[in-house]
Amino acid sequence: xxxxxxxxxxxxxxxxxxxxxxxxxYALLKKGVDSYVWLQxxxxxxxxxxxxxxxxxLAKALSLMRPYLDKAPVxxxxxxxxxxxxxxxxxxxxxxxxxKKINPDIMH
Length: 108
Prior knowledge:
This protein is an alpha/beta fold and about 110 residues long. It has one domain. About 35% of the residues lie in helices and about 15% in strands. The protein is built from three helices and four strands. The protein has helices at about 15-30, 55-70, 95-100; strands at about 5-10, 35-40, 50, 105. It has a four-stranded parallel β-sheet with strand order 3-2-1-4, sandwiched between helices. α1 links the parallel β1 (about 5-10) and β2.
C-alpha cells in the first residue's frame, strides 16, 4: 500500500467533511502513503506541497465566484421548488489539471 497515491477533493477547509478528510490525509501520511488534498476555497488555509488549491489571484477569485455562477441558470426558473440545486455545468480545468498531474490511484 505504500506506493499508493491518494487525492482528497473538498470545496473548503471548514466543516465536518473537510476536517474528516484532513484527518484521513494526515493519518495516511503517517503511514507513508503519498496523500494530497485539493481545496477549491483556501480561505483560512495554508498552501503546502500536500495541501493544494488555486494559487493565482485570478484562480482564487474564480473559485470564490464559482458557487454563485453555477447557480445562475437556475434563477431563470422562478417557479422552481426552492432548495439547494447545483448544475455543475462549469468546467473543472484547475481540478482536472491537478488530477492529471498527481495521477492518483484513489480520489476521495
